[in-house]
Amino acid sequence: MKLIIPMAGRGTRLRPHSHTLPKPLLPVAGTMIIERLVGTFIRTMGRNIEEIVYILGPDFGDPIKAILQEMSARYGAKCIFKVQERALGTAHAVYCAQQELEGEVIIAFADTLFDAIETFNVDGADSIIWLKKVEDPSRFGVAVYEGEKITGFVEKPTEFISDLAIIGVYYFKDASKLKAELQFVLDNNIKGPGGEYSLTEALDRMIQDGKLFKKATVDEWLDCGTLPAWLETTGIVVEKEAHNSSEEIETYAKHGTTIIPPVYLASNVTLEGGTIGPNVSIEQGCILKNTELSNSIVRDHATLQDCILVGSTIGAHTQVSDVSGEVHVGDHSVISKK
């Protein structure tokens, strides 16, 4: 099975962090967003992914490709890169991988994380669309359905049609059929809202051609597309995954640091004094001295001293001292009130 991940966007709503690292490579409690996505597929589908195709922007250099190659190797998957020269919409992004659109394919836009208790069964369908029940369907593209069968799609409906939002994850039994419809959309210049080529236009054409689409509903859908969303999602994941032992808390207490769970602490983190937590993620190699930190993310090898920070995101290799409040600092920065 192939996994195609369009990730050419620069993630402007996650600046300053996305200035130096694409959004899918940012961490959530020690693991890159994109790696969590791959891991979830393997766990919830019970099948291996033999090939991962990354659709990158034209300015994504070798260091970013090296990270993705290493991650693919960890899962035993072949790594392929494609480039989307211009952002012309979701249909255009997927079509940039046209040579790989054959056989069984999963397409996943790396904007969000999802989870499900049960495994998904893709047997007996031409396509499976991952959906999540939402309170305000007017904010999303939604799927119209009868039982398990999807009959169509509506983008941001003004009247209630369905409360199952499309989360940006799709399975195709034979992706060559999708490729043909994408080609039609592009050749005929069929554009949706905002003047872009929409993937849902191609999906609608497949349904009209008699292809069987079924729905797969997820239990959890977490957004990582903005700074507040990244913080909120990290807090949720930390609470689910970080089991702070009493021994760990006592060890830091001996060095004068109070830990208020849940907290994610990577390897080789130095804490001296202060209070850490709740809902804090600190990546490897960080040093925090006399710092109070809550609901925040600190990326690798950052140093904080004499700070009181809430709802903040601190970039890698950054030094922050004598700062209070909410701050969002990019990589390799130095900030001090002194």
What would you report as the Rg, rounded to the nearest angstrom?
22 Å
Structural class: alpha/beta
The tally of strands reads 26
Helix content: 10-25%
Give a description of the structure.
The chain has 338 residues and is α/β, with parallel strands linked by helices. It folds into two domains: 2-228, Spore Coat Polysaccharide Biosynthesis Protein SpsA, Chain A; 243-336, Hexapeptide repeat proteins (UDP N-Acetylglucosamine Acyltransferase, domain 1, 3 Solenoid), CATH 2.160.10. It is built from seven helices and 26 strands. It has helices at 33-45, 62-74, 90-95, 175-187, 199-208, 227-241, 246-254; strands spanning 2-6, 27-28, 31-32, 51-56, 78-83, 105-108, 112-115, 127-133, 141-146, 149-155, 164-172, 213-217, 220-223, 258-259, 263-265, 270-276, 280-282, 287-294, 296-298, 303-305, 308-310, 313-314, 319-321, 324-325, 328-329, 334-336. β2 and β3 form a beta hairpin. α4 (175-187) packs across α5. 42% of the residues are buried.
Quick overview:
This protein is 23% helix and 33% strand.
